[in-house]
């Protein structure tokens, strides 16, 4: 069974794109009667749960609720809206409804409770815990499967605080399920997603060692499944392992630069070099530029260099942006369309799946950081090049 959670985006929609259904083949009425009916419908509580257990009616009701936006976009208004949603959804789940309706309702309610907790409802976590306990006592196979998936998600989300033994146990457990699931099984997508979540969570938490173990294990399992699309997934996993293994090793960076010329990282031998995967369309990349420019100004004379690797697709626009922002360093850009964007050869070689990705290389040509952004970059530069002397203007 694949989880079919109502989208949080829908739950928090700004606009409502649905029309109110009207009865078909209704007998003709006088104009006054029509106005009375219209006025009555307008006054009807949109959170009122339809009577009975008709699956079609309740399904439409839940879908309509998922598209409703808060009338007031204030914390109080949002809290009130989702409190009403929770009450209505709970009413549906409490009835003797079909398994599908029950599953949709409880999945939707879990998300609503999560939002309520974020907006300061102190009872939401308690309600969520009670709901999960109730689900665990449910003997229906589909509910048991949902509980197992939710518990797995909780364990993945808690990897940052897990012990080494717990991390290894989760890596192995997810790998076992991935290996046992046939590629044509309806559950294969869920198992693959779980494997990717485990590996990426470990990577995102800075646990490169266990992330490498996870990516290698899952790539080996997937390589035994005969499917062309799976082959591409395996390649990306292997490329990611190559990047994570860079710590303490050399990085290969070479290619044509914007506006002409060639670059090889050996050109900066003996320097501290930041290899910055970025693009002009990347908001976080642009937000990092002031910090990067400031540190470049402070440390360039001490031996700090930057080489950008652009994932753009328009060289002229990239050149214009570089000039507008007065970027003092060069960026590698491949002129061939098939080597641009996410198909940049260096990005593919190192499994770059998100930008900015900033890799710092020391004076010996060895990678010392895979997350050299913001304060992390400043800390690493102080380690390698020493503190910057305080400027006279800052002393005053």
TrEMBL record:
SUPFAM superfamilies per record: Thioredoxin-like
Gene behind the chain: resA_5
Name under which the protein is recorded: Thiol-disulfide oxidoreductase ResA
Originating species: Thalassoglobus polymorphus
Signal peptide start-end: 1-23
Gene Ontology BP annotations: cytochrome complex assembly
Stored InterPro entries: Redoxin, Thioredoxin-like_sf, Thioredoxin_domain, Thioredoxin_ResA/DsbE_sf
Keyword Disulfide bond: yes
Basic and acidic residues compositional bias, start-end: 27-46
Ranges where the record places region Disordered: 24-49
Thioredoxin domain residues: 244-390
Tagged with keyword Plastid: no
Keywords for the protein's UniProt record, in alphabetical order: Cytochrome c-type biogenesis, Disulfide bond, Redox-active center, Signal
